[in-house]
Amino acid sequence: MPTKPDPRVASVHLLLVVLLLLILVPAAPQDHSWPKMTSGSEDERAGADAESLVLADKQADEQARPSPSPEPAEPPADYIITLRQDTTKEQWEQYKLQLVGQGAEIRHEYFSLILKGFAVALRPSKLQAFQQDPLVKHVDLGQSVGGGAEPVGLVSGVAAPLSLV
User: Fold this and answer.
1) Least packed by Cβ within 10 Å: which of 33, 92, 148, 151?
2) pTM for this structure?
3) What is the pLDDT of residues 29-39, one digit of tens each?
4) Rg of the chain's alpha carbons, rounded to an integer?
């Protein structure tokens, strides 16, 4: 004897179908406008408007693109500028303003009894002017230093006496 389908199961199936349709069917545009019948003059105006928009877009693209420079930009290099030991705080500040004014990127500042100077990123062509300043003791090319050694005395991340390693 055939059993009668449960109405609750049918309503769940219907709900799932509706949800799937809502998810899969893209939403309709908000303006709900239909194509209108237009005369030839309106079509011509619409075409002219579209053409002027395309031209405006092309002009905006051309203005947004940077113009090609005649020579490639010189990449900055890292330098350590050490000032003389008798440099005052005011002289140090003035020299810092000179560095920034010449396009240097100051990475570190040093002003203590032992060391006065700066670690900077600077274009090499600008370096000579700073080297000739009477406040400058010397200028060194900056070098990256990194630790690449393996730890000693550790077994599986647990500290152990070296005799057990």
Assistant:
1) 148
2) 0.46
3) 555 555 555 55
4) 36
